[in-house]
Amino acid sequence: MSQTPESPSGSPGVSHVRISDDRAGQRLDNFLMATLKGVPKSRIYRIIRDGQVRVNGRRAKQTQRLEEGDEVRIPPVRVASDSGPPPAVGQGLSERLSRSLIHEDNWLYIYNKPAGLAVHGGSGISLGLIETLRALYPAEAASLELVHRLDRDTSGAIMVARHRAFLRRLQRLMQGGGVEKRYWLLCRGFKGTQKTIEAPLLKQTHGNERVVRVSREGKASRTDFRVLERFGDVALVEAVLATGRTHQIRVHAQFGGFPLLGDDKYGDADVNSALAEQVGSRRMFLHARLLALRHPETGRELRVEAPLDEAFEEALVRLRGGPAALPASPPTPKPASGEMQRPRAQVKKAAPPARGGRKPAGKPTGKPPGRRSRSRG
Known about the structure:
This protein folds into two domains: 11-74, Structural Genomics Hypothetical 15.5 Kd Protein In mrcA-pckA Intergenic Region, Chain A (Roll), CATH 3.10.290.10; 91-328 and 336-349, Pseudouridine synthase, CATH 3.30.2350.10. The chain has eight helices and 18 strands. The longest helix has 12 residues, at 164-175. By secondary structure, the protein is an alpha+beta fold. The strands form three sheets. Strands 6, 7, 8, 9, 10, 11, 14, 15, 16, 17 and 18 form an eleven-stranded mixed β-sheet that branches. It has a five-stranded antiparallel β-sheet with strand order 1-2-5-3-4, with no helix packed on it. Strands 12-13 form a two-stranded antiparallel ribbon. Helix content is 20%, strand content 25%.
């Protein structure tokens, strides 16, 4: 790494960093957060958006993956010298994550992330999942990396690579469709037993809020939905991702006319409020239930299921006790300019069951694991 002399104000000059093999595969924003310790996350994102950070002389997005040999230009940024030690991990969070570990080997951790825990710190959050793990495992702090992400209010299975070289192999596997992801959700208004929704998604930012909507200008996206259990017009549904866009399941469910229960951003506020009283929880009912892949190192099939948390399980128990007394659904709002309407061709329904008997809607995938998978290579 070459760096110009420090200026009289105490701010460093422009730096040019050559990416080594152990940093390859890391996102640009994560690389800068590790390099510019003490600089607020909002400031890091600002210098990326403003084009002050360059990769091989070109502007780059925060999500760009760095490759070995890339040269990153880092502008002069004042690093806080009195920022103090990183926030301590409380005993409660430490114990909770210890119980949430559902797979561990020499290359990979898989956690059953609690709802409400962000995967990254920032925007007023001092500790996310990855910062907490780096604090709990200081010997591995430099090499622990998230393989993918979950929304803060989504619970369930999330992978954390223990080596950056392994991270790159997992990411290539995901890009090639080699990782199966299944989610469970509670929704209202799901018609039939199966749907495939293909609708392009466009990500937008309004101030500090990130919003995704269906738009012809967006990226191609597909989600397959299947009913597992019904409770009146409320349903437990399994979603399988064919693509991995931000908020994909939530926006596709809203677009299909069956918004997630408990979703404050894309759901129905009156329905969410009534459901909270009925089931005793205001959480968003979306859970990453299953991850399945061929382990890049061992070559073995790895299939890990994340048990539902207490709030989700309790909601199912209460829903099974009787029909959901929820307010009537409002009429579908007219799409805003530039948004796509919901044509029938984009919501594909499965054929109805054959006559001659009632066909079950489907059954959940597998049973909660009785013990943790602890293969250590």
